[in-house]
Amino acid sequence: SPVLVGPHAVVRADHACRARPDPRSCGARVASTLVSIPRPLALPTAMCVKSYGKPLSNSELVSFIRDGFLVLQPSVHGGESLHSAIYEKASQLPARGLCGNNFMRHVPEVSAILDAPEVVGALTSLLGEDYVLGASRHCHITKDGSAAQTLHQDDFFGFNNYRHAAPTELMLFYYPQVVTPLMGPTAVIPRSHYSKPSTQEGPWGPETPHEEQAPLTLPRPGSCLLMHWHLWHRATEQLGGAAAPVRYAFKMQFRRIRPFAPAPQVLLASCGDAQRNPFYAHGTADIENDGLRNGGGPTKTSHDLRCAAVWATLCNRPLPQEFLKSMREVGLNDEALAVACGAWPVDDAVPALLDVATGRAPGRCGQQSRESQEFAASLHPRLAEQLRTDPRCSAAAALQLCGLQKTGGDVARSLMMAIDREIGTEVHPWAMDLRLECLAAVAELAPPADALPILSAELSTGRPPRAQFQACIGIHKSAVRFGAPDAPDWQRAAQAAHLESRLLACVGNLCSWGRQAGLFGNMSPKRFPADDGCLRYALVESLRCVGRCCSERGAREALSLAGENPQTAGIVGAPGWREEFARFVERGRHCPVTSAASSF
Predict the structure, then answer these.
(1) Residue 198 phi/psi, 5° resolution?
(2) What percentage of the chain exceeds 90 in pLDDT?
């Protein structure tokens, strides 16, 4: 098992699969608004090629929610010989300028790690079925002379978005070699993943009280560190000099596609007692055997309550409305989490959040409960605070977790009309942006007939690549959930929105602009993704949408526009070409913007 240098030990438990409980007994969250609208597919479609893998144990699930990370040991064919082969190829990456987003094309063996049952099971448990591998990745190297990194949370590959407490993105570090204390191991701050940045303790670090940094040493090659995207971490100083082996850490990002409810089948084995939240019982936060409390009764802290809410969100076990009072008592102002965990009913939340997101005065509470009225009222005074985040962005982010709504089309149109009138179609080059958060909400709230006209409009020539990136993510989510390309409701909506032609035009325009701006080639002058306006990632997501939504002819055209050989992607006359296309875009495609000078 892995070793932590410091007071912490990683909880390891048997990965053995358990019998899946009857989904009818899992207490699925049902709202009155979820009627008379096209239903998303509840199970993975035939396009989903990922197996469920080995589920997390209950103790591992609790450990991840509480501490923000797990260490996994993937089972792979070839064992240590595979890790040795990957280590040898990793040693050649720096000289070839391939440590950035393109490393998987040149070290394809890393795919075996991502397909290992332990990795697939953990990712499916925490992100749901049909999760995707993002285009941002890097091979981090620590060698003789490497200094310690600054403590940090990763941004969203060069950009800032709203940070959800419930996992919507995860980070995986794969270490092909043993990692000793002298090799500059990765250090994490357990339980810091729900904390915003602050300078109140001196150097930049977590806002809330936190634990000491814990450098992770790994006694076996091939270990993986699975992290909540917002966990505070850093590479430590290499102390071994030239005598210590070089440490390679392949970092990859994964993103949720399906909503939190219903919970994935693989996770139900980890939930334990269906009616018991391990972090919240009898109206009090209660983490058992966590070593934080010294005698006395249980206390309530913002971390405890966040853990309780995240567990409820992941396992689809709604918390009572009295939980909103507990949140207010500790100053936990997280409307997105309040909605996600079920404590704030969506029928009450949607109108209140829409008021805040569009900058309107508070609406009437109607027949809302006292708890909902008090919680909604607490949102509006924060409109004037303008501290670390725009409260309107926070409200739009909370709408992203309200689920598909009967009135979702009206809500989506109201959001975008208000934003268009106020700020137009431009977005910030890198900061969290209200328009982008609203676009993300559209795909979650509305069925395809309402969502696709809004999202596909963002693909037009002249729209910022960052907006096109977000729109393509929304289109792909809607496609997966509603059974694209074959489901009749999806087909009608896609045809009405002229989706295929708009996607192909988007791919062509992005590639044309990239070439004209001199971004394509091995010597790209643009260092960070914000410098190229998110073009490199918008192109990946547009191709991902093409593979899911368009005809084979359209897919061929998109690959040609992007400078790829269609035969390379395995789509010429091959059965199951959509799966091959998706895998190629995720793992085999060469990004022409990424270079040694611009690796992220």
Answers:
(1) -155, 155
(2) 61
Pairing mode, if any, of strands 247-255 and 169-175? Answer: antiparallel
Measured distance CA(540)–CA(227) in Å, rounded? 24
Q: What is the DSSP string of 109-172?
A: THHHHHTSHHHHHHHHHHH-TT-EEEEEEEEEEE-TTPPPPPPB---BTTB-----SS-SEEEE
pLDDT value of residue 422: 85
CB-count burial class (<10 Å; 0-12, 13-18, 19+) for 96: exposed
With 50 as the cut, is the pLDDT of residue 50 above it? no
What would the two tokens of residue 179 be? 């990692």
Q: Tokens 């992770």 sit at which residue?
A: 216
- Is residue 81 within 8 Å of residue 12, measured between CB atoms? no
d(CA 6, CA 496): 59
DSSP state of 299: -
- How many other C-beta atoms are found inside a 10 Å radius of the C-beta of residue 88? 11
DSSP bridge pairs for 115:
none
Q: What contacts 24+ positions apart, CB below 8 Å, involve 555-560?
A: 555/581, 557/504, 558/503, 558/504, 558/507
266 neighbors 60 (Cβ within 8 angstroms): no
CA 185 remoteness from chain centre = 24
Q: What is the pLDDT of residues 429-451, one digit of tens each?
A: 888 889 999 999 999 999 999 99
Q: 381 by DSSP, 3-state: which?
A: helix
Query: Could you report the per-residue pLDDT of 493-538, keeping only the tens digit for each?
Result: 999 999 999 999 999 999 987 776 666 665 445 556 666 778 899 9
- Following DSSP, what letter does each residue of 549-592 receive, concatenated? HS-HHHHHHHHHHTT--TTTTT-SS-TTHHHHHHHIIIIIPPPS
Percentages of the chain per state (helix, strand, coil), in multiples of 5: 40, 10, 50
How many whole angstroms separate alpha carbon 252 and alpha carbon 226? 10
Confidence (pTM): 0.86
Q: Could you tell me the pLDDT band of residue 156, with boundaries at 50, 70 and 90?
A: confident
Query: What is the secondary structure of 472-525 as a DSSP string?
Result: HHHHHHHHHHTTTTT-HHHHHHHHHTTHHHHHHHHHHHHHHHHHHTT-SSTT--
Please tell me whether the peptide bond between 40 and the residue prior to it is cis, using omega within 30 degrees of 0.
no
Report which residue type is found at 432: M
Two tokens at 130?
């049909």
Residue range 394-427, pLDDT digits in tens: 999 999 999 999 899 999 999 999 999 888 888 8
